Amino acid sequence: LPFIPMGQISPQERRYSVNHSAKRSTKCHNHTATSSKERHKALCASRMEAVLKYSSRHPKPAGLSLQYGTAGFRTKAEHLDHVMYRMGLLAVLRSKKTKSVIGVMVTASHNPEEDNGVKLVDPLGEMLVQAWEVYATNLANAEQQELQTVMTFIIQQEDIKMDQKASVAIGRDTRPSSESLSQAVIDGVTALDSKYHDYGLVTTPQLHYVICCRNTNGEYGEPTIDGYYKKLSRAFNELVKQVAVCGNGRLYLNVDGANGIGALKLKEMEQHLNSVLSLKLYNEGCKGKLNCECGADYVKVQQKPPQGIEVKPLDRCCSFDGDADRIVYFYKDHGGVFHLLDGDKIATLISTFIKELLVKVGLSLQMAVVQTAYANGSATRYLEDVMKVPVYCAKTGVKHLHHKAQEFDIGVYFEANGHGTVLFSKTAEDQIRQLASEETTDDKKKAAQTLQNTIDLINQTVGDAISDMLVIEAILSLKGLTVQKWDEIYTDLPNRQLKVKVADRKVIETTDAERRTVRPPGLQEKIDNLVNKYNLSRAFVRPSGTEDVVRVYAEADTQDNADALAHEVSLAVFHLAGGVGDVPKPLR
Ligand SMILES: CC(=O)N[C@H]1[C@@H](OP(=O)(O)O)O[C@H](CO)[C@@H](O)[C@@H]1O
Ligand SMILES: [Mg+2]
Fold this sequence. Notes:
Elements: H1 33-55, E1 73-76, H2 81-98, E2 101-106, E3 115-121, H3 130-141, H4 147-157, E4 167-172, H5 178-191, E5 195-201, H6 204-215, H7 225-241, E6 251-256, H8 261-270, E7 277-282, H9 296-302, E8 317-320, E9 327-332, E10 338-341, H10 343-361, E11 367-372, H11 377-386, E12 391-394, H12 398-405, E13 410-414, E14 420-424, H13 426-437, H14 442-457, H15 465-479, H16 483-487, E15 495-500, E16 509-511, E17 516-519, H17 523-531, E18 538-543, E19 550-555, H18 559-576
Parallel strand pairs: 2-4, 4-5, 6-7, 6-8, 11-12, 11-13
Antiparallel strand pairs: 1-3, 2-3, 8-9, 9-10, 13-14, 15-19, 16-17, 18-19
Helix pairs in contact: 1-4, 2-3, 2-5, 7-14, 7-15, 10-14, 10-15, 13-14, 17-18
This protein binds 2-acetamido-2-deoxy-1-O-phosphono-alpha-D-glucopyranose and magnesium ion.
């Protein structure tokens, strides 16, 4: 039977399904059940010996406890060596279980340079299935003497055949600590006598792409980084060749590379693009520190341009995050006022573009947009009321958005912070490709080909700054839109994000896709009362999955009101949820 990863069975049939390239064991099975059980036991025992031997080179600091959170493990790099080794072990078990190549990405994305982290990539390039996150946490936190017990538990619980071959693909970002940490992952894989391919410096989405290609026997694309560049650049070049681009025939874009891997890889990608796109790269990592006063997270949260980039009025600019899976756009108007075009604006641009093409080709496919509670109220209203696109709210973390988006023929999902992509079901993709190859009216065929190239340009495995950037650039040029015109499609409600330190953030429990709290008692009532004081207002709080803080979000009719509401809600959290340190101060 084909293996369907647990928790990933979606109502829509997906375009790509796992093709088991890793062969089953060829050993003959004419022994009795008992002797095969004994052989398995002996194999486990000998592997375990190696696991423990290698493990002593990667000791766990006693008492350290971490959790596989929204995006894997993340903390100070010096605390992660044992976690990396153990994630190497877990990746092998996951590979044996799924009979597929499993990815391990060493990165802490937008966190400071001193941090690091690790996330596992499942067979179709998706995030590690949730049920295994618990194994990851247990394995990372097992004291040295408990390691064997935890490993044995996972093997038995998942009925893992230890003689099944395994293969792990490893990638890393540009942090100084990443190279030695990825070596620890390799040690884990080696301890279990398994194969690995070290892809070295890659963006997170590039690793996801390669994993998907390898497990679908190349159906998704050529399973190399060069194959990634070729696939995306071919689609992009096809898309933009039909437009007479404004001005002197070139698109100009300033890119803030966050001093990270995205800058490095964008330079490689640029060589594959026809000269129509002229990129000016800033914060490319030669001098500045990773994510330090630059990058997508800084620009989104601080609502200001990154350091080290000269922004002239109306210049189109974008920022990547530290592992290049997020992107936001921005510009300054003639008055020098900064304008941010975040994940919500990107989702609106892309879904509008796709919807218009679907009308042109006459396909009635079900399209929806998936957001989180952080989506600006104006974006949700515009999509629902003006565009008539159904909008769904998922919990924070791309795995939640990804799963929801899989329910539709075309699922566009973006977090407000710029992480997102578009998923096409098999039905949708087949119908579009069919139309693009048929003899039909010129307009219809052209629209179908545009859709087909858009599919090829999008990295469906995960949000991808490079791919999203090219999609946006293509759409803007095809629609003849300036960044200002794109921004004017709707006006964001002023908003504010704050953080509150509490003794134990788990005291806050949420419901309704994190938009309301059920604990501690009285908090939601207090938030409701505060929200009622302002116009067009909304506020919610939730414990972060990546930092030891409670996040507060508020929006209202003016920036002053959004700031005041966010501050008042912060005070409510501080007093009702066990705040520590200084009482939150007003913003102005
Ligand atoms: C408000 C916000 O931006 N939260 C981010 C952040 O999660 P938290 O659980 O809020 O810490 O990091 C996640 C991983 O990168 C990302 O998916 C998410 O959107
Ligand atoms: Mg990231």
